[in-house]
Specification:
heterodimer, A: 353 residues, alpha+beta, six-stranded antiparallel sheet, two-stranded antiparallel sheet, 6 helices, 15% helix, disordered N terminus, B: 407 residues, mainly beta, 13-stranded mixed sheet, eleven-stranded parallel sheet, 34 strands, elongated
Chain lengths: 353, 407
């Protein structure tokens, strides 16, 4: 496979600085087998240094992935522009690639130190739809190979006391891309939406509004309003922001891809979009229909003031495949997220009687 | 395709060798796109086949026990999955530790036939928001009897249009064995369900036909429910007929907090807050509590709800030409204390009506006719039990005769 990412080095078109991607032709026998063949990274593959024109980005409220550190990138085709909307995911042109890279620190005492790359997920904008590809890194860390059926990776790590432990990590199968990204039979982006992208990032040592920075690169058409005029999610752990807003942003990021109308959990009637305003719809005193063992013996999704009797907390804390939320693909509860949701529920007033 | 594991792809176009000296019928695999056999790596082999399938493919699964540790998923449209028989091709999920279902289907037009799905920690087979899903000659079951470790649902189509479940068996589910939720155009025919909390449950669904099933030894036999707060509400027009509903007296082993956990054992047919259904020519026998219970959504029993679109009352249902025998001898749960008559009457109603509706023409009345010598009893929950009545005259009428379904 030849280098697929062609980078324009000059030209009046400002978006050329966002790079260009050339997808494999339909008749080349499917997507590349090796991550390197995409040409997304420069230098040593394992260092995931973005190639020229591949843009790193960050989200405001991250999705919990068993504690993985994640890097995110996007690449646009030549002349391609992004259409920004306030609440929905952005529209990227055919030929775009959105990348999420998963890695773990080898030693929890040095989270910024040596790491083990685990998987790199791509969403590739084809003519008809987004398609997901997953590349799984080898032990030697010099290659990542496309897998479709998922796998289990066993990570040798050191804990905060320096004791070795093995963490099991699940790489999803390619169908499971759809379990988060698909609703109403259409694949959607989850990170690149205005509220998630509207945060500050550091560019060459300077803190800038990410959307303003991207706008300055010319990636949008039409140009969006200044970031300060656009909606934003907070960092869910930024205590200068009110708890309700942070909790709702967390639930949006971690749950609303399924728990919305048309999503995989839409049938439950539980809507965890941040813009949902009806408490009964986002779980307050909401009974279940098909939760089975997921109720834990409790009656309501959220009981104001009582996280210990709230199904939401019970399911977030579970590791039982029948009970746990999200269903896939984590093995470990998100302790920080759980603490946030518990605090939010504990502070609610009212009752379900 | 199938380049990953060519050694596991058996030749198609022939018949299975008769390696059991004629004790089992040969299976015709000639129509299979791919025939797979159990191996040491069933999760990878099968999931890869499900991902790489093309529309119209028939994936066949040879006899034997297949072992899975993760949920399987199928999103391709128009695929058929076929085994050698529900008790010969067995997908065993006893060691599953990932995923809430055994098999999760999101492709349209998927057909599953002639295999078993066993011992999933969560639900057996779920189909979410699909068109035209079909199961026939399948088994979904749990070996442990009435165990809290069993999964909640056996068959679990939800949000779907065009659902067929035929000639199949479900046992051991700790919620509903055969469940259809928020769906339309449904045929549930000739199945046997036993050892579940609810044998068959049609919930928030419209235009179902439930016919010729045998529901026995569950906590409750057949449930037609409408529940609040869901994406799809206002289910109606289930035609439930010619079923054999027998001795559904199993202890209720559902998780507390679920709706079915509040169902007392010993009920044949339960109708909750759903309208325009027809129940006829069923045989309902041997239930400790009662033959048929018609209920509104009672918040004291099921939890408070806050769904402005929700209609709490069962209306315009019609039960006729059913046979009730030997029910109500040993009533269980809250009903036993409310109704003094023994044996308990066969046709129970909570007496709750929507006083905001004008029923002077009888359009909302639940009708009963020609149910042999079955007794009626309105226990007047909503009137504080003050006007309990057993005279059926005011409710002897006819409702809408519903069509068969052929989704």
């Amino acid at each position: 496979m030849t280098l697929l990412l062609l980078v324009a080095c000059a030209g009046a078109d400002p978006a050329d600085s966002a790079g260009t991607v050339t997808l494999p032709a339909e008749d080349t026998g499917g997507p590349p087998e090796h991550l390197a063949d995409w040409g997304l990274f420069a230098g040593t593959l394992a260092d995931t240094v973005p190639a020229d024109g591949v843009l790193p980005y960050q989200v405001a409220a991250r999705l919990w992935s068993d504690g993985a550190d994640k890097e995110r990138f996007l690449a646009l085709p030549a002349g391609g522009r992004i259409a920004l909307t306030e609440l929905d995911d952005w529209t990227l042109p055919e030929g775009s690639v959105v990348v999420k890279h998963f890695a773990f620190p080898l030693d929890d005492r040095a989270p910024e130190g040596a790491r083990r790359n685990v998987e790199t997920r791509l969403l590739v904008r084809r003519a008809e739809a987004w398609e997901g590809e997953i590349y799984v890194w080898n032990d030697a860390q010099d290659d990542a190979v496309r897998e479709v059926a998922g796998s289990r990776v066993y990570l040798d790590r050191m804990d905060v006391d320096g004791a070795p432990y093995t963490q099991e990590y699940l790489v999803p199968n390619s169908n499971q891309c759809e379990s988060c990204h698909m609703r109403d039979d259409v694949m959607h982006l989850l990170g690149p939406d205005t509220r998630q992208m509207n945060r500050s990032v550091e560019v060459e040592g300077v803190s800038v509004a990410q959307i303003d920075w991207l706008a300055g690169l010319g990636v949008f058409d039409p140009a969006p309003p200044p970031a300060a005029e656009l909606p934003a999610f907070p960092d869910p752990w930024d205590e200068s922001v009110d708890l309700e807003t942070r909790a709702r942003a967390y639930l949006h990021a971690n749950c609303s891809h399924c728990h919305r109308p048309g999503g995989g959990g839409g049938n439950s009637g539980l809507v965890l979009l941040a813009e949902e305003t009806d408490p009964a719809r986002y779980g307050v005193c909401k009974i279940t229909s098909a939760a089975g063992a997921g109720t834990g013996g409790f009656t309501y999704g959220i009981v104001p003031g009582d996280p210990d009797h709230s199904i939401m907390v019970y399911r977030m804390a579970s590791t039982d495949p029948e009970i746990k939320m999200p269903e896939l693909p984590n093995l470990l509860p998100d302790a920080d997220g759980l603490a946030l949701i518990r605090a939010w529920i504990a502070g609610m007033e009212g009752s379900c009687e | 395709m199938s380049s990953l594991l060519p050694a596991l792809l058996l030749a198609c176009g022939g018949s299975e060798p008769d390696d059991t000296a004629g004790t089992t019928p040969a299976v015709d695999w000639s129509t299979c796109t791919t025939l797979l056999a159990p191996s040491a790596d069933d999760p990878t082999v099968v999931q890869t086949a499900l991902i790489e399938a093309a529309e119209g493919d028939e994936l066949c699964f040879d006899a034997g026990t297949w072992r899975f540790t993760t949920e399987l998923s199928l999103s391709v449209d128009g695929v058929t999955l076929r085994g050698a028989g529900a008790d010969r091709t067995v997908w065993d999920f006893s060691a599953q530790d990932v995923g809430a279902n055994g098999l999760a289907v999101t492709g349209d037009g998927v057909t599953m036939t002639d295999f078993g799905v066993m011992n999933t920690p969560g639900d057996g087979i779920r189909a979410t928001n699909v068109s035209d899903v079909s199961w026939s000659r399948m088994t979904v079951g749990w070996d442990a009897q009435a165990s809290l470790e069993n999964g909640a649902y056996g068959f679990y189509p939800v949000g779907s249009d065009g659902v067929r479940i035929e000639d199949s068996a479900v046992y051991g589910a700790r919620d509903a064995g055969l469940y259809v939720g928020q769906s339309t155009r449904i045929l549930v025919a000739r199945n046997e369900v036993w050892g579940n909390v609810a044998g068959i449950e049609i919930e928030n669904s419209t235009d179902a036909e439930v016919v010729d099933n045998h529901a026995h030894d569950n906590t409750a036999g057949i449930l037609v429910f409408n529940l609040p707060g869901l994406e799809v509400g206002d289910g109606k027009r289930a035609k439930v007929h010619a079923n054999r509903v027998e001795s559904n007296n199993l202890e209720n082993f559902a998780e507390a907090g679920t709706i079915v956990a509040s169902v007392p054992p010993g009920l044949g047919i339960v109708v909750l807050a759903t309208d325009g259904n027809e129940f006829h020519d069923n045989t309902v026998s041997g239930h400790d509590t009662a033959g048929m219970l018609m209920l509104s959504y009672i918040e004291d029993l099921f939890g408070s709800e806050d769904d402005p679109a929700y209609d709490h009352w069962p209306e315009a249902n019609w039960a006729h030409d059913n046979t009730f025998t030997g029910n109500g001898e040993d009533p269980q749960g809250v009903l036993a204390g409310l109704i003094p008559t023994r044996p308990m009457p066969d046709l129970l109603w909570d007496g709750c009506v929507d006083t905001a509706k004008d029923n002077s023409g009888g359009a909302y009345t639940n009708c009963y006719s020609d149910n042999g010598d079955a007794d009626f009893y309105n226990f007047d929950w909503c009137g504080g039990f003050a006007h309990q009545e057993s005279d059926l005259a005011a409710y002897t009428c006819t409702g809408a005769s519903l069509p068969a379904q052929d989704p």
